Amino acid sequence: MSDMLNFLIAPDFPPENFVGWHIFNTVLQRKIDTEVHLITPADHDEQMEFISQGQVGLIYANPFDATELVRHLGFLPVAKPIEQFDEMVIATHFGTPYQHSDDLRKGCRILITNNRDVKLIGLRLLESAGLEESDIEWKPVASFQAAAHGLIKGEADAAFFLASAYHEFNNSTKKKLRPLMESRLNELSHVILLRPDFLHLLTAIKRAFIGMRHDAETKFILEDLGIVHGFEDLTVEETEFMIDLMETLKD
Questions:
Q1: CB 12 within 8 A of CB 165
Q2: N or C: which end of the chain has fewer CB within 10 A?
Q3: Are residues 237 and 193 in the same domain?
Q4: Confidence (pTM)
């Protein structure tokens, strides 16, 4: 083996997935015949610290961060999960009177992580309620799990969640929450990106990710991670389209 590839997984997934990602990482290492070190940052700030220090060679990034990585740091598109889109859920505590996101009013308190893609989509959903960013009292939390716990304790009127994270909560947690709105963009997804320093590994890494869905061993690993259909090739054109869509959401 040669090189040393640090593979960072965005902190958008439940801790229960960490073991699965370590198994996935071991398989990836074998398939590309390169030493791969898995990085699972605790939060977005820690992720950005790893990136700013140049410690990340391969990353599974959310679409907002992908914009920065591609446009400003030159990261290259590798793969994306098949038919698995990044949607978001606005939810409230089951004991509140809110039945729909349009019921939220100016001055409402919303728990939010540092997932900027989730925030952008959520703000678009709240346009029908007549709410803008400045109308909301934002309450930062470190994770989607923390947002759920805070909501259950009555610390806010609502919370923003990555839809996949919300749907993976256990039944005990979900029984105490009520979804008010879920996006249906069907355009944005987390993506695998490669730092340009590792261009010589691009073909091998693409082949490894795309081929995993045809391998019985890795198919089960992917299913455990919630990537049930595996990965497909991510083209430059698809990446640019997604980035343009993120820019539109910012406007």
A1: yes
A2: C
A3: yes
A4: 0.90
C-alpha distance from residue 22 to each of 18, 27, 28, 29, 72 (Å) = 6, 9, 10, 11, 29
Report the C-alpha gap between 246 and 121 in whole angstroms. Answer: 9
Which segments of the chain have a pLDDT < 70? 1-2
Scan for tokens 């919370």, then name that residue: 159
% of residues, the chain, pLDDT over 70: 99
The last residue of one of the domains, among 139, 157, 182, is: 182
Do residues 195 and 57 make contact, with C-beta atoms less than 8 angstroms apart? yes
| Number of domain units in the chain | 2
CATH number (domain holding residue 125): 3.40.190.10
Written as one string, the DSSP assignment of 152-214 is: HTTS-SEEEEEHHHHHTS-HHHHTTEEEEEE--------EEEE-GGGGGGHHHHHHHHHHGGG
Q: Are residues 174 and 198 in the same domain?
A: no
Range(s) of the domain holding residue 79: 2-84+187-250
Strands (E), 83-157: 88-93, 109-112, 137-140
Give which of 11, 86, 14 is closest to 46, Cα–Cα.
11
Sign of the Cα pseudo-torsion (83, 142, 68, 2, in order): negative
Residue at a domain's end among 182, 199, 214: 182
- For residues 207 and 246, state if they share a domain: yes
Please check whether residues 118 and 178 belong to one and the same domain.
yes
Query: In which element (H, E) is residue 246 found?
Result: helix 236-250
